[in-house]
Design brief:
387 residues, alpha/beta, seven-stranded mixed β-sheet, four-stranded antiparallel β-sheet, 16% strand, binds pyridoxal-5'-phosphate
Amino acid sequence: MARMRPHAFSIFAEMSKVSIQTQSINLGQGFPDTDGPLELKQAAIRAIESGEGNQYPPPNGFPVLRKAIADHQKRFYSIEIDPDTDVVVTTGASEALASSLLALVEHGDEVVFFDPAFDVYRAGIDLAGATPVGVPFLVAPDGRLRPDVERLSAAITSRTRVLLMNTPHNPTGVVFTAEEMRDIADIAIAHNLIVISDEAYEHLWFPRHQHIPFATLEGMPERTITVGSGGKSFSFTGWKVGWATGPTNLIAAVRGVRQHLSYVSGGPFQIAMVTALGLSDTYFTEFRDQLRRQRDQLSAGLTELGLVVLPTEGTYFLSTDISSLGYTDGMEFCRMLPQTFGVAAIPFQVFTEGGIGFKTYVRWAFCKQPAVLAEAVSRLSGLSRHH
Ligand SMILES: *Cc1c(COP(=O)(O)O)cnc(C)c1O
């Protein structure tokens, strides 16, 4: 299919392969190198041994898990949803996004999102036969990035159907402020748009910032599909349990499509996610604290090397502007890194239309053990002299 051809290449696959070949430290792909809580592993093992999770789960997810998801939305955000009708369990946040797009947009509809964007957005929109409309982040004179709400507003046409939003934002590490959220919500309401809100990093925000779900804003619950990721929230990215929540009519549409994709998946892991979502507040604050320390460590290390590190408000990723060291092309820089220094990172270009935007920005994952981050920084010590 012609429109999917540009999506055949994956920088993540290339970088992971090169990382292995060159024995590099992979700060490219965002997966933690430490597993989540032991009790979740034990819950998954129990679900296998007891037989509870070994056959097809119900199409929209085990009822206990749908209830745990609804309870989680209420506990953290005071969002009230009916677990029987307003929740669907998916094969990771990825399938929740793909099935929401396939369910809600017609051929030729426009889906608007901020650029740079997680790479599955463009692929999912093209798969659905809709038109991707990327709105570049605002670049402040000091290089800092913010969602450009005015440009978002200007990008809306009569064909716009969906705003595909993501906060905390991958790859920029930006957490949208209450004011930015309200402005975006007002645009959605004024043009009667649906918001698909990718909140995969809902628990990963750092001091002075806080995640606000779109579904908590007035006028938004009835038009918002909220997407969550068990992999990201509990450090089991290989388990691929995600979910979408929202108003009954929209979730019914998503359920209708999703059942024809993977049908069901991850029985034992679904059961373990019930335990995960019920973990104490301490788990969530310690998880954040630990990642904040890793962020600070990598940020200090890269700054020391002469890179400009943008403020990282949430997610697994920090962004640097490599032009401070005289580098002009992130793609070239990231292809040079593993061979020369034994470290892998990802250029922002791969998250932009045609791979051309934000040419001097590079993304680094800090969800790695402190010793690994220290080794990466030490390997990069010749960076400023290299150029
Ligand atoms: C990782 C990620 C996802 C996908 O999550 P899975 O649960 O692994 O499918 C979705 N959105 C963003 C922004 C991500 O970084």
